[in-house]
Write a structure and sequence with these properties.
Length: 660
């Protein structure tokens, strides 16, 4: 008898059997909402959430004395993952298995624990780990990896566990051990119950993986795949003949700044060369790509239609040419970087900007001026003299705007009408009239830049019935005036809902984002804004909060904190936030509630519009001058609202009657 055989016999004999079974049971900590398949049934049934799958039932199932087939759901943590390959799957063959093994091995996962799950012939590939892993993280990383590698993740093809579904327990009827080519080595019914448990547990110990190593390799592989895709797309964008979009000739050589263009060419060729260049580089490279460079075989990508192309090219360029000089890149803050690039590229001039200006009108005032000037100078003045004077002043203004634009770009400041007004001394109307010079550089602006006289983003100008950019109306209705009593400034929220009908999803996103900028990101230099609350305290708004507030999880039950799907119900209510926080909504209240995370200290604030079941959440800040920061806003159910109200304390209410 060998040592291994003797050890196995010792484990299977006497009191050691109890420890063996307990070790198997410990693999399944979640016994609620288990699944079962009664005899003769083809479909699984979920047991009541009040039911509990006992140790005795599990041991009967794996020993073969239970006539029903059982399965468990996943707990918050797990020590293994399972890839479920259906018998009719496209991957249920030697080639599919080899491809799957190759992908997993590239990330340090040996696909050695392969089993036949049942008499149907499907496969369960177990991946065991040396320590417990968060189920959500494990499922998310494996899902990202296999999808990126081109696998079809769905029921009947390839499923990844942990998931929100239950999975058949091993060692039941039809279970078998398979070799690397999926040939049966030994069937479950060829072994006694304890022998089968022992063999399965030995697999879990002999083929363990270190999750941190696996996770690191998956992240590295995902970055590699993304980089390859970006390079491929960039090549396609640069080689593809761009379509004319109506704006390609709008920015003529008059809008081309040679200093910025040459800086963009230098960045394009050499990358970042010192710290704090990223912002300037994004603008300069964008300007360079707008006009192109035939000598270096860089095709021009002008106009609004090419904005996404420019953004992708800039992102790909930055990923390969940051040279370690960007803190945001080193911190792996690509979400913020991509947002900056998109804001830099997604500008579109208004249609009227290209209109031909009428000749100088011969009005009574113009005639009087002609007579007066003729008397003063001794020569006969004509209307064309006025036009020449205007042209001279216009050229002088354009020179100032170009100079101011370069000054703002080189200092790393955001390009806004207000900023140009300060550095040039020109009036806002003059600056807006020459948007062909600076418009392409604008990232995001405060309310003054989005009035009807300015360059309005194209998606928003297409809205029918009621203009989304009636600035006078929005300022009068939404501005929080301390000089008026709350009762005199009650707002009708329904009248403030955005009309998003007839818009595409992209246009809806653009309209919502633009309104968020217009109303809440009012600082001319930074992507932030400050709003006075009903009691005089202040709330901070940030551009990064937009995604958290107006996106939701596409799978809330499994990933409640994941924000990957825009919520248009929230988006159309973006104009409700300010009046509710300012105390201008009838039948509204403010509560202090404990944070869901259980954070000690100052509680959160929740504003509630009772008639609309609409909530706005604020979180406390450490700063004394701005005490709160905006977190989220959405309509909810009475049950959810009641849970918030009952857990908090009322600090203010506006009981004024609704406006009729």
């Amino acid at each position: 008898m060998t040592g291994a055989t003797a050890q196995k016999k010792a484990i299977l004999d006497g009191p050691n059997r109890f420890d063996l079974r307990q070790e198997l049971l410990s693999l399944y900590p979640n016994r609620h909402r288990s699944i079962l398949k009664p005899p003769g049934c083809r479909n699984w049934t979920t047991v009541s959430k009040h039911g509990y799958l006992s140790d005795e039932t599990i041991l009967k199932a794996v020993s073969g004395t239970e006539n029903r087939i059982w399965g468990c759901r996943w707990g918050e943590q797990t020590i293994f993952a399972v890839l479920d390959i259906d018998a009719k799957s496209q991957y249920h063959n030697e080639l599919g298995l080899a491809r799957l093994s190759h992908v997993l091995e590239s990330c340090g996962i040996q696909l050695g624990s392969l089993y036949q799950s049942s008499d149907s012939g499907g496969w369960h590939a177990y991946i065991f780990f040396s320590d417990w892993v968060k189920s959500e993280d494990l499922q998310d990383y494996l899902n990202q990896l296999l999808k990126a590698e081109g696998f079809e993740i769905k029921q009947g093809q390839l499923e990844i566990f942990p998931s929100n579904n239950g999975l058949r327990l091993p060692l039941q009827r039809g279970f078998a051990w398979l070799d690397a080519s999926a040939q049966i080595l030994i069937r479950r019914d060829e072994l006694k119950a304890d022998e089968a448990i022992y063999k399965f547990l030995q697999d879990s110990k002999d083929k363990q993986h270190n999750w941190e190593i696996v996770r690191t390799r998956i992240i590295s592989r995902l970055k590699q795949i993304a980089s390859e895709q970006e390079r491929k797309q960039t090549k396609e964008y640069l080689e593809e003949e761009p379509e004319e979009d109506g704006f390609s000739t709008f920015f003529s050589e008059a809008g081309k700044l040679l200093d910025v263009y040459n800086a963009g060419r230098n960045y394009w060729q050499n990358g970042l060369t010192e710290p704090s260049q990223r912002h300037h580089a994004i603008l300069a490279v964008g300007h360079y790509l707008w006009y192109g460079d035939e000598s270096n075989q860089v095709r021009a990508l002008p106009g609004a239609r090419n904005s996404q192309r420019r953004a992708k090219v800039i992102l790909s360029w930055l990923q390969e040419n940051h040279n370690g000089y960007s803190n945001s890149v080193l911190k792996n803050d690509w979400k913020e970087i991509e947002a900056d690039i998109l804001r830099a590229c997604n500008w579109a001039p208004q249609e009227a900007a290209n209109a031909v200006r009428a000749h100088y009108p011969l009005t009574d005032r113009a005639i009087d001026r002609l007579i007066d000037r003729s008397k003063q100078t001794g020569r006969v003045w004509q209307v064309t003299d006025f036009e020449k004077g205007n042209i001279g002043r216009e050229e002088e203004a354009r020179t100032k705007i170009r100079s101011g634009l370069v000054q703002l770009i080189e200092s790393g400041r955001r390009i806004t009408v207000r900023g140009l007004e300060r550095v040039t001394g020109c009036k806002r109307e003059t600056i807006r009239r020459h948007a062909d010079i600076w418009g392409v550089f604008r990232l995001s602006n405060g309310p003054g830049d989005l009035s009807c006289g300015g360059a309005v983003p194209q998606a928003a100008t297409d809205c029918s019935q009621e203009s989304l950019f009636n600035s006078e109306k929005s300022e009068n209705e939404i501005a929080c005036s301390e000089s008026k009593a709350v009762e005199e400034s009650v707002i009708d929220l329904d009248a403030l809902k955005l009309n998003l009908k007839g818009l595409t999803e992209e246009e809806k996103r653009a309209a919502g984002w633009t309104w968020y900028q217009q109303l809440y990101l009012t600082d001319p230099e930074k992507p932030i804004g400050i709003l006075d609350l009903h009691d005089g305290e202040k709330a901070l708004f940030h551009d990064r909060t937009f995604d958290h507030a107006f996106y939701k999880s596409s799978n809330y039950q499994l990933y409640p904190k994941k924000k990957d799907l825009i919520d248009f119900v929230r988006l159309e209510r973006v104009r409700w936030i300010a009046p509710l926080l300012c105390g201008q909504v009838s039948q509204s209240s403010c509560f202090e509630v404990v944070a869901l995370s259980g954070r000690p200290g100052i509680p959160n604030r929740v504003y509630l519009a009772h008639g609309q079941s609409y909530l706005v959440f604020l979180e406390p800040r450490a700063a004394t001058d701005v005490q709160w920061k905006f977190s989220s806003a959405f309509p909810s159910t009475p049950g959810y609202i009641q849970s918030k109200v009952t857990s908090g304390s009322l600090i203010w209410t506006n009981r004024s009657p609704p406006r009729r």
